[in-house]
Amino acid sequence: MNATRYLKQESNHLPWRAFLNGLSYISNRFEQQKFQQNYNKYILDLLSNIYNKIGFSDDDEEEHLNKLNREMILQWACKLNKAECVKTSKTMFNDWRNNNTLKIPRDARSAVYCTAIKNGTKEDWDFLWKQYVQTNFASEKKIIINALGCSIDEKVLQNYLEEAIKKKVIKHDPASIRRQDVAAVFTSVYSAGSIGVDVTLKFLVTNTENLYEYFGKWDDVADLFVNLAPYISTTDQRDTLENYINENMASFPKPIRQKFTSALTTANGNLLWFKDNGPKISQWILRVQETEEKEKPEAEPDSSTRIESLNIVLTSLIALMSYFLSHL
């Protein structure tokens, strides 16, 4: 874990991408846990320098990796509720709503859209849904689909999932969710946070027949459970899944029963991983936070040591993530 502290001085895209990709699994485990606030605070502290550096505005002259950095860092900062990130995102979104000529910078859209929907109103959601219907750009539709699932209004999310599997009256109705976007709709909801996991899980266990009618294949229905399982982080969520599987397993076609068993195994593994590793990570973070103010800031590495440091941190991060994931 000590290797992660180096990142506070790092601005290169590659170590940040390696770290944040691995961090996704750990962050999901901390959802709805009592240590979540301290965990989020620690990650935001690591992000603070690079967040202040990248800003929200695109720069046509900057390198491509810097653009990727902006998109990635803003998403994480806003997801972890960095106050300035949330405030700026809401302001930019509201300005866009009031004047659609004020376009949101492309590299900031994923963060801004999601944050505005998470912290906004039903009217904000309806506005962004209208943009989904009207745009002809597949890349923009994808960003919007992901953002619409960021709402924390359970009714809004429920309606969103219902809309996703609604039978189309008109084959190419522009006001409906495209067939190829349906899986992304479900992912957008359960990947946004614990509320989304609860809503999706409840929807799946109470709409199994409707889902089968829409997809026409049990494999597709089972895949929704399998893909949701890695995001289950609480005992209540696991119990809901387990009870549903136990009560319905005999009615599932034999070829897909293994998928439901796999989903439950994953959910149990999530809880076991946090039981074994959550307290260790939390205690380490608390120790760092208690002593950090007493430590003097380390000097930024010069160019002669930067490549060596980058190799060290990448190796350390990969080893760290491999260790945690091996304990599933």
UniProtKB/TrEMBL annotation:
GO molecular function, one term: peptide binding
Record-level GO BP terms: peptide catabolic process; proteolysis
InterPro entries hit by this protein: ERAP1-like_C_dom (IPR024571), Peptidase_M1_aminopeptidases (IPR050344)
Localisation per UniProt entry: Cell membrane
Co-factor requirement: Zn(2+)
Similarity annotation: Belongs to the peptidase M1 family.
Name of this protein: ERAP1-like C-terminal domain-containing protein
Organism: Cardiocondyla obscurior
Lineage: Eukaryota, Metazoa, Ecdysozoa, Arthropoda, Hexapoda
